[in-house]
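Checklist before submission:
- one chain only
- standard amino acids only
- sequence pasted in full

Submission:
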Amino acid sequence: MLTLHGSPISNYYNKVKLALLEKGVPFDEAYAATHSTDEAILGASPLGKIPFISTDRGALCESQPLLEWIEATWPQPPLLPADPFAAAKVRELTTFIDWHLEIVARQLYGPAFFGSAPLSEGNAARIRKQLEANIAAFKRLAKFSPYVAGDTFTQADCSAFNHLPLVAMATKAVFGQDLLAAAGIDHRAYTKLVGERPSAQKVVADRKAAQAKG
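Returned file contents:
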């Protein structure tokens, strides 16, 4: 049996969980804290990052390789187009969402969500400038017609549904302005649309239950 390790509060954990649920893959869940020093966890995820999975063939870590393995192992229903170029465009968009939006915005999460000291004026200005440039680039790639990569739910939506609200909330908290909305990206309508899917409802319900437990 496949086991997904991590926390339902983690957006990258939920990126993988959403893909598994969309495909109807049977899996168990097991809690693992991020940056654990437990040797058993480091054997599966050498940096102690979540999510990772355990299978009868061994462990795998990093969210995007997990999605690629899931897609190859359970190709139906597809989360990538059959056409190689179209599939590459979905991967391109997913990379933008993960690395050029979420990872940059993650620098804001401490003061935005966890009570850390405010960023210095210079550091905040640097992050804002980078995010504004990256959001403009993302807007050139994203379609939202109605899904982020086009008319079909794909791997890019597994990232976008879980990351875009965090980017919006973090920028609002730190800068006083939702930089996605300021750039003309209607992420609320998009997340509402995806949120009507049973898989997304399960992800959100489990996240809220975990947050309620503290």
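Reviewer check: Residues 2-73 form a domain with the Glutaredoxin fold (CATH 3.40.30.10).
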